[in-house]
Automatic annotation (TrEMBL):
One of its GO terms (molecular function) is D-serine ammonia-lyase activity. Belongs to the DSD1 family. Keywords: Lyase. It comes from Mesorhizobium qingshengii. This is D-serine deaminase, pyridoxal phosphate-dependent. Gene3D superfamilies: 3.40.630.90, Alanine racemase, D-serine dehydratase-like domain. Pfam families: Acetyltransf_18, Ala_racemase_N, D-ser_dehydrat. Residues 454-561 form the D-serine dehydratase-like domain. GO terms for biological process: D-serine catabolic process.
């Protein structure tokens, strides 16, 4: 075996001092052929704001400051962290290396956490050539061997100058860190998003900034959970609005449950956080289906696909051939002429079902979405829409069962019909997403009060034109989105309703115009009200027409509670496809 010497600088360099042996490193590498299933419930992708905490954790782990090296590796690699709310418990970096990928460095509180970090990184590398270097004394060799990573050599890690002193023993490029050591450096190590560069009060936030009211979020979540329980159905929340593991943990406080996603990126993200049962509720393309099934193959998760055409059904054979995974598939239904899907009595329903089976896939059920409900505004109309959605979905399932298809899952939902359904007999699961945050469209439909809306954009007053009765803020459509979903409702809310800095609605003040980075606040036409005093530099909160669209403009939530100016946390959110 080839033996090489690697030198690592200590916390101080002593001129002319001899190099000291730091430990024996075993090199393990090979094609990753084993299926990897991480326990990743508290592991998430790192963000730029985490870097200070990662560097501080690394220094405590290794006993030597190496912030530039850690930052350089993070800049070219994928970084994950163990985030236990009040603190970091570890990090890992994976980057391209030669013909494949190398996992390391890894630092964790325990070897078990180190294994979990490594598995979380390996979960996305099935079939790739992978290298992991480990310290001999920690006995990870057999475990890595079982994953297909054979020992190919060793090296002696060296340090120039005095030997670094870390708390605990050197690990797998993890080093163990005890509670006592962590407590000695609380300012650098505690990781509730209140530290590591995140701000503590909204008055120092750079605007525009996305706010999330924790109290409202929790009440909204509880409301629909209780309604679904009363109706006797499984609630499969749609994460397309929140796109955040922190929000998901409030929906599922006892561990991951069934979810709906709208992009493969969301599926990959939530799989990395331990979610196993997902419905990808957008009509599949062959490319998106292959990527989704590749995720299933790598991680063992179950991602169910959606389609409504014979062409998509036929393509499932190609998906299966490309990935070696048998897809699970829903047929999308049209219950209200709103969007895609097949009518329950359309002969193509049975034809598509047959083509799914012929392609070697599993038909797991039918799925409907009552999009028409977003245009309603009365109790009777919403109750009727919910019942029509139920009848259409149950009818389709009955037709398929009569043709020999088991159709075990009968899924429906939209935020309006989910709240106004009075009877879900024949339905197995309920889906909704916007309910976690709510928005002005849902308020206009009659699903929520304006005080239930949990997200808003914080903006600063940057100008005024008194002759036009305008106030200018630094939030345009890049922060608020271009969504004008209330334009066809009884009350047009412009680009959003304006509140004061504490979140109290300013009567009849709306964002009437928006350019890329500017919003123009005016009094609603015909109101007769006067513009309240909003001096330059004052702050306002702007409620969204469409919560999904507003949140989609931002990378993270600054979490608040009611009128308090304190930022309780910073929650990252996934973007992209």
């Amino acid at each position: 075996m080839c033996c090489s010497i690697r030198q690592r600088k200590g916390s101080r360099s002593i001129g002319g001092a001899a190099s000291l042996a730091w430990g024996t490193v075993l090199q393990r590498q090979g094609p990753l052929t084993a299926a990897v299933t991480p326990n990743a419930c508290d592991i998430r992708p790192a963000t730029a704001s985490d870097m200070a905490a990662i560097q501080a954790f690394d220094e405590l782990a290794t006993g030597m400051p190496r912030p530039s090296m850690v930052a350089a590796l993070a800049d070219v690699g994928d970084v994950t962290v163990i985030d236990r709310g009040e603190r970091f418990a570890g990090y890992a970096i994976t980057r391209r290396f030669g013909r494949g990928f190398v996992v390391g460095p890894v630092a964790a509180e325990s070897l078990q956490d180190a294994k979990r970090l490594i598995l979380a990184q390996l979960a996305t590398l099935h079939g790739q050539f992978v290298r992991v270097d480990v310290y001999a004394e920690h006995g990870l060799g057999d475990w890595l061997e079982s994953l297909g990573l054979a020992r190919v050599g060793h090296a002696i890690a060296m340090v120039n100058g005095r030997r670094p002193v870390s708390d605990g023993q050197p690990g797998c490029m993890p080093w163990r860190i005890s509670r006592s050591a962590r407590n000695e450096d609380t300012g650098a190590m505690e990781r509730n998003e209140k530290t590591c560069g995140a701000v503590k009060a909204i008055d120092v936030l750079v605007t525009p900034s996305l706010l999330l009211d924790r109290g409202r979020l929790e009440r909204n979540i509880q409301r629909l959970a209780e309604h679904a329980k009363k109706l006797g159905v499984v609630l499969r929340p749609h994460m397309k609005t929140a796109k955040s593991i922190d929000v998901a943990r409030h929906v599922f406080p006892h561990g991951p449950g069934p979810i709906t996603v709208s992009t493969v990126a969301e599926a990959e993200y939530f799989a990395g956080h331990g979610f196993r049962d997902m419905t990808y509720a957008v009509g599949m393309s062959t490319a998106s289906a292959i990527r989704a099934m590749a995720l299933c193959r790598r991680t063992g998760v179950d991602v169910k696909l959606l389609l409504d055409t014979v062409e998509q059904a036929d393509a499932l054979a190609d998906v299966r051939a490309a990935t070696g995974v048998t897809p699970s598939v829903f047929i999308e239904l049209d219950c209200d002429d709103h969007r895609g899907g097949l009518k329950p009595d359309d002969p193509k329903l049975v034809e598509v079902a047959g083509r799914i089976v012929t392609a070697g896939a599993n038909l797991v059920g039918v799925l409907a979405h009552a999009g028409e409900s977003y245009g309603l505004s009365t109790l009777d109309a919403l109750v009727t829409a919910a019942e029509n959605e139920r009848l259409a979905t149950v009818r389709a399932a009955e037709i398929l069962r009569a043709r020999g298809h088991a159709c075990p899952i009968v899924s429906l939902g939209s935020t309006p019909t989910a709240h106004f359904a009075e009877n879900l007999e024949g339905i197995t699961e309920l889906r909704a997403g916007a309910y976690m945050f709510f928005d002005l469209v849902q308020h206009g439909v009659g699903v929520c009060d304006i005080d239930d809306i949990a997200v808003s954009v914080l903006a600063t007053v940057i100008g005024a034109k008194p002759e036009k009765r305008w106030v200018l803020v630094d939030a345009g459509w890049m922060a608020l989105s271009r969504d004008r979903g209330t334009a066809n409702q009884q009350v047009d809310q412009g680009y959003g309703v304006v509140c004061d800095e504490k979140g109290r609605v300013l009567e009849d003040v709306i964002v009437s115009q928006a350019s890329q980075e500017h919003g123009i606040l005016t009094i609603r036409s015909g109101s007769g009200k006067s513009m309240p005093e909003l001096p330059i530099g004052s702050r306002v909160r702007i409620l969204p027409n469409h919560a999904c669209a507003m949140a989609g403009q931002h990378d993270f939530y600054s979490v608040v509670d009611g009128e308090s100016p304190v930022i309780e946390a910073r929650w990252e959110r996934i973007r992209g496809w």
